[in-house]
Amino acid sequence: AGRAILASTEEDILAGEDVAALLALGQILIERGELEQAGTALERAKAVLQSRPPAEAADGKRALASVIDALGRAYERRQAYAQALAAYQQALELTDAQADPRYYGVVLHDIADVHRGRGELEEAARLYQQAADHKRRGGASPDDIAVTLLSLAQVYRDLGRSGEALRDGADAVQVLRASREPDPHALAEALVLVARLQLQREPGQAVPLLEEARQLLAPQGAAEPGERVAVLDLLAGAYQALGQDDKAAEAAAAGRAILAS
């Protein structure tokens, strides 16, 4: 497809029926930020695929869905939510939920992100839950499942539904811990979310979570200094709430040392 792009003009590709070349052109235009032109190339690829027998078009539809999803993400980065949602809906329609539940879950997560960005939190929560269910059904990686569960927990937190936020945050922690090679930063983020919720209820439950997050973020380059200090501040507050002033002072001093370094 790359050689076809080099050998042909944009107009030639758009007039032709080479789906691979059309998708490659669409991807290049997305990378250039020419999103309307990318949409034109992808619409042409869609039309070509629709003219072909279903069995012949199946692989092309999956590839098209992936590039259209990339177009949606480019629009979302611009906060052009209407265009992003339209692209994601197209990608979803091109994806077979039964044959490829994992990828169907990925696109549902992207749609949920748009609703979250627009402040439509109830709809975002509903879609994140569906996305997590599909990812699990499709055998997605623990990191992939956890990122959706963490988004779901954050939305429930923002809705003031702390019980559901705690449930899904704890689920994200368990999913990541079960991974052979969990992303330390992702696990720390999940631990801190659950710990913040526990601080309001049972500070004693928050302490081991924050200590674990502290250790995960301690290695050089594992996190920004501000992230490490934020965990230590929370840890100091938890110890203080438990009346363990010495440990609270130790955590606070460790935070100050990071800022001074």
Could you please describe the fold and organization of this structure?
It is built from 14 helices and no strands. It has 261 residues and is mostly helical. Helix 3 runs parallel beside helix 5 (54-77) and helix 5 (54-77) packs antiparallel against helix 6 (81-93). The N and C termini lie far apart (51 Å). The model has no long low-confidence stretch (mean pLDDT 94).
Strand content: under 5%
- Could you describe the largest sheet, including whether it forms a barrel? none
Order of helices and strands: HHHHHHHHHHHHHH
Pairing-aware structural class of the strands and helices? Answer: mainly alpha
Q: Could you estimate the helical fraction of the residues in percent?
A: over 70%
List keywords for this structure.
single chain, 261 residues, mainly alpha, 14 helices, 0% strand, elongated
Question: Layout of SSEs?
Answer:
Blueprint: H1 2-7, H2 10-15, H3 19-32, H4 35-50, H5 54-77, H6 81-93, H7 101-117, H8 121-137, H9 142-158, H10 162-177, H11 184-199, H12 203-217, H13 225-241, H14 245-260
A few lines on this structure:
It is built from 14 helices and no strands.
